[in-house]
Sequence to fold (214 residues):
Amino acid sequence: TMLYSINLRIMSNKANVSFLKIDTPFSKITLFMQNNFPSIPSDWGILIFLLIFTISLKFILDLFFHTDMGLSMGALGSNEQMIISQGVNPQILRGIGICFGNGLAALAGAFAAMYNGFADVGSGTGIIVSGLASLMIGEFILRSNKISIQTLRVIIGSIVYRALMFIGRSYGYKIGLTSNDLKLITGLLIIICLLISSLQGKGDWKKHFTRRNA
Fold:
């Protein structure tokens, strides 16, 4: 609710702001593709740009999470007492983590607004649930403690989630689904991932219990 008011302030108290007459990286890429590769859709140029940017950002994040601060930030969620025993203030790490998360979310929102050609104050509604679903799908697909795999599964999960949403919009009408049911699909995906993770956890516990009594 507070961010809604802040976003309105940033957008000069306008609920919708058009970028059609503003030069953005995407508009320049579109112009470049039209001038140099007229036979290729400009969306391919934007896709290549986003792919390069995503790989570069992942590489930078991998390097950061291999540093002392990055490792401490990763360990904070599992064992806060260990971080305190190392002489690190957990509140500072939390603040840095929140800054990283909000910065990446703002960057993604900026890219989405530039691609769509407009910024809408309500476009971020439900994005937390969508992000949670993407993370859980990625964790379900790729299970590893390696930092490079953990950052990769965020990307993979986002792609798979959007692919599922596309399938739901394109073919859901055959079973009576509409665009209003997308949030329901997202919730069901989260529940399914939670159930599968819970069942797998119980299976691992049973194996451990059986091995211990053997």
Notes: Residues 130 and 186 are 7 Å apart (CA to CA). The longest helix spans residues 182-213. The radius of gyration is 21 Å.
